[in-house]
Amino acid sequence: MANARPVHRLSKKLYDARVPALREELVHLQVRLKEVPSKVLLILAGEEAGGRGEVINTLSGWLDPRGVETFAFRQPSDEERERPLMWRYWRCLPVNGRLGIFAGSWYTELLRAQADQGLPAATSAHHIEHIRNFEKLLVDDGTLIIKIWLHLTKGEQRLRLAELAANPDTAWRVTDEARRNHRLHDRLARSSARLRAATHRPGAQWTVIDAADPRARNLAVAGLVARKLSAHLKRLEAPRPKAPRIAAPKSLKPAGLARLLALPLDQKLSSSEYEAKREKWLGRLHRATRAAQAAQRSIVFVFEGWDAAGKGGAIRRLTSAIDAQDYRVIPVAKPTDEEKSHHYLWRFWRHVPRAGLVTVYDRSWYGRVLVERLEGFCTEPEWRRAFGEMNDFEQQLVEHGTIVVKFWMHVSADEQLKRFREREHTAYKQHKINAEDWRNRRKWHPYEIAVGDMLALTDTPSAPWHLIPANNKRHARLQILKTAAKSIEDALGL
Amino acid sequence: MANARPVHRLSKKLYDARVPALREELVHLQVRLKEVPSKVLLILAGEEAGGRGEVINTLSGWLDPRGVETFAFRQPSDEERERPLMWRYWRCLPVNGRLGIFAGSWYTELLRAQADQGLPAATSAHHIEHIRNFEKLLVDDGTLIIKIWLHLTKGEQRLRLAELAANPDTAWRVTDEARRNHRLHDRLARSSARLRAATHRPGAQWTVIDAADPRARNLAVAGLVARKLSAHLKRLEAPRPKAPRIAAPKSLKPAGLARLLALPLDQKLSSSEYEAKREKWLGRLHRATRAAQAAQRSIVFVFEGWDAAGKGGAIRRLTSAIDAQDYRVIPVAKPTDEEKSHHYLWRFWRHVPRAGLVTVYDRSWYGRVLVERLEGFCTEPEWRRAFGEMNDFEQQLVEHGTIVVKFWMHVSADEQLKRFREREHTAYKQHKINAEDWRNRRKWHPYEIAVGDMLALTDTPSAPWHLIPANNKRHARLQILKTAAKSIEDALGL
């Protein structure tokens, strides 16, 4: 019985005496969570037979079940496998007022991969980087993350497994995998300790809880949840200073603005030349998307640009080269209230295409560093960190095999004015112009600075920005078709 | 070349002359669709090689792609297979302002099943009943449904297949299945004609379009969409009479009210007796849910009842018997704006559990015939037809293998008053009582009538109502545990 410490078991009497107050506290905290509102993500991991299931059942019994959701994350479904690794977690994130319990998570997945395949250190480090980024993103957004590791020594684990095996109701839990994990206890403990150390970060710390005594373990978990949640709510309920007024923004990286301003806009393209070339490139784009589909690669197009830069028309030409059954256009307007209850990237994650399909985002997550930055819809720290978050999002898409093609459609201020007036004077275009467009136009220069920063800070090798001069509509459309076709061909190695 | 009629082909010149006006009209109609707002479901079906894909591509090119979504419905994903047949269609229904094109639909699925398996007539008739109900439900809810059948004679089909096979870009479309469908043309044409006749219903009529000449076919489809959409918008844009005031409701089926009023409410149950029996039934319920999971059967619990009848407490006891990873509790409050944009059943369909899992609805679709009926949140025709819609929904769940258990928790008006007062005087219960509860209480008698109608009209053999006397909390909780366990055991034949 090496490793088995003498366990000082908590008596049932003491346990029963402590539970009622703890339950009441938890339920009160849930009410406050709904009022603030905020959300909690509880990640439970631990050694084999540490009692994760029992902890979750106990905790769920103590909490108001209407505010809790538990996710087990067993085998990914085919819809999940066809998207980047983190998609399945994004789709299960709790909304405001709720507590999500993840039994099994990116940690379980990574540890299993390490144990099964002896994952190379570089791959592990890379996964860890994604995990850190994901947790930071949630914490920054106001989600309380509680990470608990239920710990058993090898000797304690042996005892627990023997107990489980002896009871006909629980014997099924002692699977071959459980036995193997027991044999490998010490090696697994070392690798999980390394993983915890690498992901023990501000706002997303690990708490290791001794799981040898089930009653003490339950109280420890529930007590930790109560303390963490209480502190979280206290922070949120405190009066917060008003967000400062929005001043004219300063450029973070003037190189981007310089690139934007240097873009020549006076291209010419005759109608006949356009038509001849258009057919050629539509054909190439069609073949490229079909080849991507055959390779089960998905494609994401991002369209950003000035109001009236011609996004709609360009999207129409682009999609005419793709089978209508294979693409979806996501027009990005105001978020729905469900979307508002999540991290700002959630509403874009939910439309990430399945294998072989295409999503066209008509405006996108970049709204965060454009309109939201300039209109004060988010705070300065929020839009500042968004650059990195968006790079990481696109990186995940690309690593999964998705081809990401981003366009900024650029017109001059004069050209925009001409198009606005035309819209106002053309009966069937009037719905395309409103007071907000004119308001945005008055902020042309601040917008230029924001666009420049976006171009400089999110132009990555795997998801570069394509600047499209768009004063000439024909030229712009043709360049988009070309760029789209070539980007896909390049990604496929054609 | 039997069957090949002499085709009078539409010249390219005439076609090109007609397209611009049609496109402009379609885009204008899309703008109005967004403003009303309403939604369109375009179902495209037809003979092999009728050009469904080309029609969709053409139409998508003419419409504003931001308002269109096309769904192909190829092989169902595992997430779809684990739910009732129609779940995959529910999840793809267009939201307000949008046009959904279903290339492939319940019709494709049924016709394929008929061709492959020689589906028994009774099964077909049963499917047809579900299709009729589903389309009626959407039409009643204000969705415009346009159903188009692209028709080719056998001779025309042979020509089209030969054309496709001759072109290296399209030869892949001439699959073995396509060849077989061509051989079976006449038989398939007869069975599809029967299917169309059986599903040609008010608001969901079929239009058969001759698909021999692609250009004429495209114009015919687009023209039909424009005409139907225009008429639909005209109806919706016309000033509508105000909904009448809500009068005290009259009972539709007094037997339900009688059943409710006859329920004895004065049961006694000692604390010790309760605890002993509770353990027994919790164990049985636990084993029953595990057996259901082993059989890949999912379970839906519906909790309805008076305010303060003890739904929350009962759900807490019930879920304590189920592994937390296997159930979700859906608290039904105000719908989100995304949910509001859909049929009222949509937000319940989206939470239908996967195989082996459990969903607990804390309040449910029955809100339609209770609070919505009494508060005038829906019109009288709406709540009147809801009874049948809800029966059909539950029928689909049951046919899929889901076990549906519905509870009405009943307290007397006096008992409710006592509990309301207690809530007001107990600090940590005050959040559970508000002005609305008192308002609802003043409508006790109208509510009784609505509950009675619900009990009478939605008490079906496969999804019966269980009336739970709930003046005594212990008795109510125990009876719920018992009923739940027995219902699952019965469904599993244990």
TrEMBL record, chains A, B:
Pfam families: PPK2 (PF03976). The keyword Cell wall biogenesis/degradation does not apply. This is Polyphosphate:AMP phosphotransferase. Keywords: Transferase. Residues 10-232, 269-490 form the Polyphosphate kinase-2-related domain. One of its GO terms (biological process) is polyphosphate metabolic process. GO terms for molecular function: polyphosphate:AMP phosphotransferase activity. It comes from Rariglobus hedericola.
